[in-house]
Amino acid sequence: MGQVADVRKVYKVVVVGMGKRGKHHAAAFNKNPRFELAAISTRDRARLEKAAAELGNPRISTDPAAIAREIRPDVFCFCTPPDVRLGLIQVGIDCGSKLIAYEKPMALSMNEAIEIRKAVRSAGVKTVVSHQHRYGQHYRKVKEVIDSGALGRIHTVYGHSVGWMMHLFTHLIDYMRWYNGDAEAEWVMGQAAGKGKFSDNHPSPDHIAGLIHFANGVRGIVETGAGAPDVPEVDYWWRKSRIGAQGTGGFAEVLTGGGWRAVTKDGTMSGEGCMNYDLDMPPYVDDIAGWLDDDSNVHPCNGESAYKGFEVTMAVLRSVVERGQVRLPLGPGEPELEALRRVLPDQPALASTEANRKEYALPSK
Questions:
Q1: Which three-class secondary structure state does DSSP give residue 210?
Q2: What does the DSSP assignment read for 284-339?
Q3: Which H or E element spans position 169?
Q4: Structural domains in the chain?
Q5: pLDDT digit string (tens) for 184-243?
Q6: 3-class DSSP state for residue 43?
Q7: What pLDDT, on a 0 to 100 scale, did the predictor assign at position 364?
């Protein structure tokens, strides 16, 4: 018998934003036979034309809403700075897309996250948020060790990074929740210092730490920024993240840029692995097709999971402002970053290493 042709649906995609992450998404969609990269959009015409030439010459436009209305894509994807989330979510809804894929963080305030969640639920649109590191082989190996029971009863999950909050915090929370079986968070407490990174396009305190109490009794510890512990095994700040779990029988942890390791009653284990978009993006995109094919094949990076992690993030900020424990779930309130900037002292955070001090442009010792 001859080979049976693959007659599965091909989904049209529009990608907005042609920075590094936008091009990662566009390239992954373009290489996947389940998708047609129908159009790309960004404000910079020269960058747009250069990207199109590298991506098989899809249609181009500097107006994302206009091209989306014209194409009516199945997938509306945008990879832009976080100050334009809700507006582009509405573009994706208005053009009739079935799924909206976008970059973390999902919003810049709890108010905005609530509005996004309400809008996509009302429209019946699926969402996926780019916490794609969980596709890394080293991240998955740690999850495998945890799920095997080799660590005994898990009592603590943790994550830290020298990168600043709105770049890395929701990544850390997403993987901590994953390692803890996606348990609900009941309350958090937080503390923060330094205003230098509020001027970044991912506005953040220079240093922030939080304690998370999960409904299953597990405690979460998370920290990002200038005062966070360094990961000297890794050479670049974006990869200087450590996420792991501790149990009654040992621990297992992943370094974003430095492999994984575990210690159990049976001995030590370790392996290689590093953040690699060429490896992580193809299965991330495959799972978008799988969810579009079948509602039961929920994407691991689904928007509801991202909402839960973002809620924890904003609860930590509220805790700093309110100086106490904050219960979840959260309702609307004063925008958290604005409130935090108002109450933080003017003195800079203290750095954990000289490298952190330089990254955050902090005063010398």
A1: strand
A2: HHHHHHHHHH-TTS--TTBHHHHHHHHHHHHHHHHHHHHTS-EESS----S-HHHH
A3: helix 165-179
A4: 11-132+279-306 (3.40.50.720), 134-278 (3.30.360.10)
A5: 999 999 999 999 999 999 999 999 999 999 999 999 999 999 999 999 999 888 899 999
A6: coil
A7: 59
